[in-house]
Amino acid sequence: xxxxxxxxxxxxxxxxxxxxxxxxxxxxxxxxxxxxxxxxxxxxxxxxxxxxxxxxxxxxxxxxxxxxxxxxxxxxxxxxxxxxxxxxxxxxxxxxxxxxxxxxxxxxxxxxxxxxxxxxxxxxxxxxxxxxxxxxxxxxxxxxxxxxxxxxxxxxxxxxxxxxxxxxxxxxxxxxxxxxxxxxxxxxxxxxxxxxxxxxxxxxxxxxxxxxxxxxxxxxxxxxxxxxxxxxxxxxxxxxxxxxxxxxxxxxxxxxxxxxxxxxxxxxxxxxxxxxxxxxxxxxxxxxxxxxxxxxxxxxxxxxxxxxxxxxxxxxxxxxxxxxxxxxxxxxxxxxxxxxxxxxxxxxxxxxxxxxxxxxxxxxxxxxxxxxxxxxxxxxxxxxxxxxxxxxxxxxxxxxxxxxxxxxxxxxxxxxxxxxxxxxxxxxxxxxxxxxxxxxxxxxxxxxxxxxxxxxxxxxxxxxxxxxxxxxxxxxxxxxxxxxxxxxxxxxxxxxxxxxxxxx
Length: 504
Prior knowledge:
Helix 2 (32-42) packs antiparallel against helix 3 (58-72). This protein has 3 domains: 1-30 and 189-358 and 366-396, 3-Layer(aba) Sandwich (Rossmann fold), CATH 3.40.50.12780; 32-164, Rossmann fold (3-Layer(aba) Sandwich); 398-484, ANL, C-terminal domain (GMP Synthetase, Chain A, domain 3), CATH 3.30.300. The chain has a 9-stranded mixed β-sheet with strand order 3-2-11-10-12-13-14-15-16, sandwiched between helices. It has a 7-stranded mixed β-sheet with strand order 7-6-4-5-8-9-19, with helices on both faces. By secondary structure, it is an alpha/beta fold. The mean pLDDT is 89. 28% of the residues lie in helices and 26% in strands.
C-alpha cells in the first residue's frame, strides 16, 4: 500500500479569494442552534424564505420553529421528515435538530412501503409528513400505530431550543447509491455546520445574497450547500417547487446564487444560447456546481455571461463539501482546493478522509467503512503542484481488461469531453458477438454546438472528431466502438449518469 503525505488546510488559503469583510464574517459554528439564534438576531427583519407566494422573515422563521418544537418533542430520538421542498420542511427540520433530536430525511418520491421500511430500519419514533403525501403514511399508520404522525403545517405553543454540542447527532441522509445500495449516513451538528462554513470560502461576497433552491432538500447538496448556507449568511432563499418553474422563478426573484447539478446547468446554458439572452438573469453571480463532473465547457461559456460557475467535490459522508475551486478559469478540470478542518490522504490513488466534517457512521449497516478514523471514499484522485485536487474516477467503476490493464471510465471520458461538441459521454465494457470484450463509447452531443455545424447529418463529423481524440490515447484506453446518441443517458435521482453494468 502506497500512501501519500496527508493534505491539511487552514482557512487562510482562501483569504485571497474573499474580501476582508466577508472573510471575517465566516465564523466557525458548532451547532445549528448557534446558527439559527445568530441569524434570527442579526437578520430579524430580512427575508429568510420565499415559498409558494409567501415571504417569511428570519424572525418569523425563528418563531415558527419554536412553535413546532413541542410537536416533535418527547421520547423519540429520531424523527422522520416526509416532505418535498417547502417552508414546512425547513421549519420541521430546524425544530427537530435544535431540540437535539435526529432528523431522518425521507425523499418525497419514496413509495409507502419504502417509507414504512425506513421507519423500521432507522428507528423513527415520530413522522412529520406533508399533507400532499399523507397517502404514503398509510402503511406506517396501519402497522405501527405507536409511531406518531404529525402534519408538517401544524403549530403549537413555543418551546426553546435544547442544549446541543458539535457531537450531537443531527441528521440521517441517504447516500447516492450510484455504485451500490443507498445507505443512511448519520451526520453530527459539527459536521453539518462545517459543511455550511466550508460553503462560504472562496467567494468574494456570500452574505446577504439571493439563493434559488432547485435541488431536493433530501439531497446533501440541496440541504447543506443551498438551504443552510443561505440561512447562515443571512440570505433570502426562494423555494422552487418544480424544476419546470425554474426560469419563471428566476425572472421574478432575480437570484444571485444558484446551486445546480451539471445537467441542470447545461440545460440553462443551452436555453441561454438558444434565445440569445442570459436565462439566469442579469443579477446572477455564481453557479455552484457539484454532485457530478463539471465540464470545462460550462465554466468557459458561463464566463461569457459574467457568471462564475464554480465546481466542487463532496460526499454525503463528508457533509457535502471536501473541496471547492475558486480558480475555476485557471484550473477548469479541477475540483479545487481542500477545505479546512479535515485531513486528506491518497492511498494507492484512493482518497481517504477524516475530520470534523465526516459522518458518525452508517445507520443500520453492519459494515464500518472507516479504518483508524479514516473514511475510504472509493474515489480515485490526484493532486498537482498547486495543491489542486482532480477526480479520476471510482474504484468500483474500474474496468479490468483481459490484458490486466485497469481502465477508469471517467478518466477516458474526460478526454472526449474536452470537445465542445460533446455534452456527456460514457465509456463502458461491451461484448461482441464472438465473445470478445471491448471498450465502447457512447456520447450525447451538445445541441448548440451541433447547430453551428450546419450539417444535415452531423453524426459522421462527430464520430470523426472523437476518433481523432481516440487516436491520441494510450492503446489500452482506446475505444473500439463509438455511438452518437439521439437522447440523453438515463440518470439517477441526483442527475448523475446511470452507468451501464459491467460485463461478467
